[in-house]
Amino acid sequence: MVSREDKRAALHEKLQLLRSITNSHAVNKTTIIVDASKYIAELKQKVERLNRDISSAAQSSNHQNPLPMVTVETLDKGFLINVFSDNSCPGLLVSLLEAFEELGLNILEARVSCTNSFRLQAVGGEDDEQNESIDAQVVKRAVLQAIKNWSDQQE
C-alpha cells in the first residue's frame, strides 16, 4: 500500500519535471500548471503556423516556385529546421547535410521523406568546439544556399 507521503513525493517529483520541461520558475503547484498550459498553447500555435507555412509553400510551389520551402526556429539549445517540397529532390539531402557540417551544426534528430515529395525535419545543435554562436537566420541562409546550389546542379 502506498502511503500518503509517497504519493505526495511522487506528485512533487512530477510537478518539478513539468516545471523544468516548460522552463517555469514557479514554486507553487497552481502556477506550474498554469505555466505548463501556456507552454502547450504556445506549442499548438507553432504547430498551426508551421502547418500553414507548409500548406502555403505547397500551393505556391505548384504555381511558381519549384524550390523547397524552408523554416528555421530557435530552440533552447539548437534549431528546428524544416524543408519541404512537393517534388522529389534527389541529392538534396546530401547538399543539406554538407551545409550543416560546414556550419558546425550537429544533427541530433532528423525525419526525412524523399518518396514523392521531399520533407526534412531536423533538430540541430551547435558544435561545442565552436567559438561563435550561430543564429537561426544564418542557418536558414545556409540551407537556402545549399538548395540553390543543388538546384543549379540539376539544370
Fold and architecture overview:
The protein is α+β, with helices and mostly antiparallel strands and 155 residues long. 54% of the residues lie in helices and 21% in strands. It contains 4 helices and 4 strands; from the N terminus they run ααββαββα. The protein has helices at 4-21, 29-63, 92-103, 136-154; strands at 69-75, 78-85, 105-113, 118-126. The chain has a 4-stranded antiparallel beta sheet with strand order 1-2-4-3, with helices on both faces. A hairpin with a 4-residue loop joins strand 3 and strand 4 (118-126). The model has no long low-confidence stretch (mean pLDDT 85).
Q: What's the alpha carbon Rg, rounded to whole Å?
A: 20 Å
Molecular shape: elongated
Ranges where pLDDT stays below 50 over 5 or more residues in a row are none
End-to-end separation: 71 Å
State the main characteristics.
single chain; 155 residues; alpha+beta; four-stranded antiparallel beta sheet; 4 helices; 54% helix
Question: What is the gist of this entry?
Answer:
This protein has 155 residues and is an alpha+beta fold.
Describe the protein's topology.
Blueprint: H1 4-21, H2 29-63, E1 69-75, E2 78-85, H3 92-103, E3 105-113, E4 118-126, H4 136-154
Antiparallel strand pairs: 1-2, 2-4, 3-4
